[in-house]
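Bug #2210: token dump truncated for Xaa-Pro aminopeptidase?
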Amino acid sequence: MTTQNEAEEPARRDPIRPIDAEGFRALIGTGWGPADRAVRVPDGLAKASAAHRARLSAALPGKRIAVAAGRAPVRANDTDYDFRADSDFVWLTGCQAEGAVLVMTPAGGGHDAVLHLRQPARADEADFFANARDGELWIGPVPGLPEWSEALEIPVRPIEELPSSLRGAIPAVLVTSGVEPLLDALAPGTVAETLQLRRTLSELRRIKDDWEIGQLQQAIDATVLGFQDVARELPYAISRGGERWLQGTFDRRGRTEGNGVGYASILAAGPHAPVLHWVRCDGPVPEDCALLMDAGVEVRTLYTADVTRTFPVSGTFSEPQRRIYDLVHKAHTAAMAEVKPGVEYRAFHNKAMEVIATGLHEWGLLKVSVAEALDQNGQQHRRYMVHGTGHYLGLDVHDCASSSAKAYHAGTLEAGMTLTVEPGLYFHPNDETVPPELRGIGVRIEDDLLVTDTGNQVLSEALPITADGIEQWVRSHLPR
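Reproduced locally. Full output below:
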């Protein structure tokens, strides 16, 4: 039988608590030398962030603006997921500090900006040694406010001063609600206000500057290395490791070259390839299958690549695999040719669908005409490719998602936009509308493109896209 006090005591609590000991408390707060608390950011980040704030200031003149970094979500019990700062916040500041808040106040025809951060606990404060989530004794040296200010070239104030930055009813504050509880409590924005701010930021972020394009190219170059890593590991994946070995192989590259992966890596072998988001990656890798790999490295500034290739793990496509691949490749190249300034955003999607529908009709898989299938009330060909043909790319893999439909889907392409083109065909193993030899094959080809003044630049061109090129690429990376 337990006593009341025993029943109330948390099961995980250590019966010997050093923080309650006078000797420990007297010793722990002294004797600490200097620590490296510098904030290291890539060249050009502070300048690019300032330019982004200037663009937002011009888009929302006279508006007071508050954007928060957010907090890491709980994974389970007392463990959290890794923190990943809000993309709009990062675009405006370059900062990735948990709990940070940017406030932009109208001043002199523009805005004054101040960044609010939590000050790290000093060695003589309890949080230094007792806070397992934020204390330096647990997580290592934490940059202070001066270090952040120097690196980001922006005034930085303690988070405790956030109320004074938001004081006053006029002008009203446009906030990114639902990201930071403290900000929500101090400036409870309406849904309409949050949507306005998010929409404005998304539409501004559609046009990338040279610094952002450089970050995206770094992400794509690292992604190419990850694809090569996976190709080299195919024999082990076939014999023992399976899809998870390949997923882990790419994810290790993402963690080594950058912040990690920009989204859950898809390594879908054989009959799993038709599943659009096969992120379980828990199946085998048959030696005669085609493997669909959709993955992207997110660099330390949080810009991400998004590349897909489908390749034969043996180094040679079967006849049905190549037949499907060639049709997707034809749609892919036709769609990429439509990516240029002044063209409707939907043009590359429409061109890919035209090629896909025509090919399926020629194979006898469409029981209606191509024209009827392409009609908005038809779309029968979409059974075999239900997703869109591309999307904007940047800090988010599906970038600028809060843009208005008019700006996103009905707008025109402009120089500086970065986007993906990714047609595919997916024949599920149990799809009785297709011949048996095509079932269980999925093919997608995805490249990352920059719209230039005269056309486009394929940022991911280091990876081949023709069937012959892919076969040769696989064979060149297989162990000899």
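Output looks complete on our side. The first helix runs from residue 4 to 8. Marking as cannot-reproduce; reopen if the truncation happens again.
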